[in-house]
Amino acid sequence: MASSGTAVSLSNVRKTYRIGEPVHALDGVSLEVPRGSYTAIMGPSGSGKSTLMNLVGCLDTPTEGTVVVGGQDVGTLGDRERTRLRGTEVGFVFQTFNLMPRLNAVENVALPQLFQGVGRAERLERARDLLERVGLGDRTDHMPNELSGGQRQRVALARALVNDPAIVLADEPSGNLDTDTEADILDLFDEFHAGGTTMLVVTHERHVAERADRIVHLLDGRIERIEELNGASGSQPGTPAGQEPGGSDE
Amino acid sequence: MNPLESLRLAWRSIRGHRLRSALTTLGIVIGIAAVIAFVTLGASLQAGVIGDISPDDQRNLYGWAAEPNTEGGPLAGAQPVFTQDDLDAVEDREDIDAAYGYATLQTQAISNGEETVAQGSGLIASGPSYIREERIAEGRQFEMGAREAVLNPAAANQFEENVSVGENLTVTMLGGQRMDVEVVGITDNSEGLSPFEGFESSPRVYVPTNPYYTEQASMLGIGGGGGGGAGNQSLAGGEARFLAIIIEAESADQTDIDAARESATDYLESDAADASELLDDDLEVQLQTSTELLGQLQDVLNLLQNFIVGIAAISLLVGSIGIANIMLVSVTERTREIGIMKAVGAQNRDVLGLFLTESVILGVIGAILGTGLGLVGGYLGAQYIDLPLVYPLEYVALAIIVGMVVGILAGLYPAWRAARTDPIDALRYE
Ligand SMILES: Nc1ncnc2c1ncn2[C@@H]1O[C@H](COP(=O)(O)OP(=O)(O)O)[C@@H](O)[C@H]1O
Ligand SMILES: [Mg+2]
């Protein structure tokens, strides 16, 4: 099941931090992320990758422009609705895993559904199911400190998927992993992507980015260029809306 | 988020820091324990003392003459002013069933035939109705003017062969004189009959004031003009004066008691009374029921109670500051966890509820431990002074509520801080 419509779209997004000199962390970014797509974001440090992820992840609101996630304009939402949107439409995978240290694997995976008011039995059943699918069916009751880095990241991936989000955001997901476990995690990403999950992955590593359908190159808060890769799906409907390489200043 | 889930998560993190949590609750534990222990003791004391007052005692007014506002309970600062004539006159008045003197006669020993036992607590001299009918297990009340006595079981059983009704005893007074008494009754138990005696159990011998007190008084020269020098009093004059009197109202109803009190006071302060010669500005007649007398004890208890409650309040304040402090530390420590929860969809109120639940649990645990400790303390105290144990259960409920309130107040600010944590900053937090 491939795409139908847009998971996330950004148009002319600007994020400005004012600490003395205004810093444009993002400076007029427009991007469509179609449902079912797999996008990598690359760029040097300070180019605005994390800022972009925070906006798409409904953790932050743009200074200018619009960010639409799961059909809703994030900038117009109040804190409560934005949190609900984040909980249901977005799944995060972090470089440092960010599991709750006092919850075991299955409880960590079930955590997002706790805040959606899903009953305990139902929650845990779904969490076990997902742990099974990421290959941790025999580790459900382990605490995070009893798991290896790769296993923790798999728990985190299962947690990101538990609410059936419109998009999974991964910020340097393999940054803390060795080569073998990195490959395992990326294989899982591929597997879920093949199953229809929309992926947005920030990475420094070319070989990680090459798993995606396309690579968005960021530089100084702007999209420098978008590189289409000839993955399994040859054509991508959602090409950049607006920005061309070296596009005009707006 | 479902409160049960908050409870589960909060409990998890409290258990993650057992020692810290235990120390945090210490202030609450001490505060609550102090209050519960004291309240238990107070309730036991009350039950132990007031519980012994029989309903029939409630119509008795215990009287003496003392300076107004003398503190110290029954007979404090009392002077012997009342004559038998006064009491006879009072007894004849309306609203009064009986009036008689009360005195303790000092003794050395009591002999039953060959056998002699020491009797340090003396003879209790009063009127016949002092020993209520229903308290007599065997025989009858003594009669005024007769050489008769009623014993309580403790007094009757102190001889090798228990004394029974109809036997004669010889009492050796403190001064060495011997007097014969005929046992005419035995009471049903050995507890005291009035606040003049005290309510504790001990061997007691009850006799009529006439002849026992009148003889003794004339010998020792109690009463008369100045109540002073020995031998200035003749038996024939009947002018022995009583330190203590008992006046019985028609019933235990407050109106009847007040009527009796007024009637007796009116007479005793009037010129017709012998007592009035000795009553002046410095000496006035006090007439009080057992309950009223114990009310003074109650006042002292209440004062102490307020003191303890004050200390407990300070302890609770310190305890809640302790909880607030630990909760603040905990919020800072778990900044990253808060960030994670918010990233996966926790609302501000979920985070607020979680931390508030945690501090309420700490408060309630403190209250429960404090209550337990306090009840044990109260129990040991009551055992020590030999009181019946009464657990003030409404205070246990109150203590738990106080623990909750302290938890809420202490947790409010830290929880609010946690709730408004920015998830982006929190996730960056190392
Ligand atoms: N909270 C902030 N306050 C001020 N400046 C910020 C803040 N977050 C990011 N920036 C600035 O925005 C720019 C982009 O940052 P970021 O998105 O973190 O880049 P990247 O993740 O690509 O390294 C940087 O210059 C950074 O200093
Ligand atoms: Mg970054």
TrEMBL record, chain A:
Which keywords annotate this record? ATP-binding, Nucleotide-binding, Transport
Ranges where the ABC transporter domain occurs: 8-245
Q: Where is this region: Disordered?
A: 230-250
| Cross-referenced PROSITE patterns | ABC_TRANSPORTER_1, ABC_TRANSPORTER_2
Q: Name one GO molecular function term.
A: transmembrane transporter activity
> Does the record bear 4Fe-4S in its keywords?
no
Which Gene Ontology CC terms are recorded? membrane protein complex; plasma membrane
Q: Which CDD domains match?
A: ABC_MJ0796_LolCDE_FtsE (cd03255)
Which PANTHER family does the annotation name? ABC TRANSPORTER ABCH.1, IMPORT ATP-BINDING PROTEIN
- What this protein is called in its record is Putative ABC transport system ATP-binding protein
Automatic annotation (TrEMBL), chain B:
Q: Which GO terms describe its molecular function?
A: transmembrane transporter activity
Pfam families associated with the record: FtsX, MacB_PCD
Asked if the keyword Transmembrane belongs to this entry, the reply reads: yes
Q: How does it sit in the membrane?
A: Multi-pass membrane protein
| InterPro entries linked to this entry | ABC3_permease_C, MacB_PCD, Macrolide_Exporter_MacB
Q: Which GO terms describe its cellular component?
A: plasma membrane
User: What are the MacB-like periplasmic core domain coordinates in residue numbering?
Assistant: 21-265
Task: Domain (ABC3 transporter permease C-terminal): give its ranges.
Answer: 311-423
Signal peptide annotation: none
Protein name according to UniProt: Putative ABC transport system permease protein
What species was this sequence derived from? Natrinema hispanicum
